[in-house]
Write a structure and sequence with these properties.
five-stranded antiparallel sheet; about 180 residues; C2 domain-containing protein; 3 helices; elongated; C2_domain_sf
Amino acid sequence: MGKEEEEVKRENALNRIIPVKIIKNLRDPRPAAAARNYVLLVTIYEAEGLDPPSLWPEVRFRNYRTLLWVNSSDQYMTNEVRGYPSVIWNEEFNIRLSGVDRPDYHYLSLEVIRVRSQCDPGPSSGVVVVGRARVPLPDALRIKQSQRVGLTRLVGGRSVGQGHIMIAMKLIVVNEQWREVF
């Protein structure tokens, strides 16, 4: 008998040691959780303290937008709004989280960007990130959670806290019929 045949016989003997009934009982008796469809309702209210007026005394206004996402391949953006140092959007977004289990998504990512900026060094597009945040998604379903979130930005290679953004989030489960209409 060859070495390979001996190994196969030994493996077969080990498989016979544990009866099939016990193997069946080791399986999880609960049915696998079905993927659910969620919608995250997000309201972007306003941002404050984005650019300190003490650093830019000659500036009267600037243009800002907020970029937001749960899944980086599906991003949303507010309209461009003019303001300084506070900016008001009051925009709502319905972010679909369909066909997945909720634990796959943990955070809402936000970036407040200054657009069409002529005085900033940076890319030729004139877009500068002035604040970022990652906000945990609500734990409870159907409860609106409003919060003031601190923003961080990169200054001289270091992450510095500067400015805040006011948002609200509400996570709801969507049934199949409503999802088709959505």
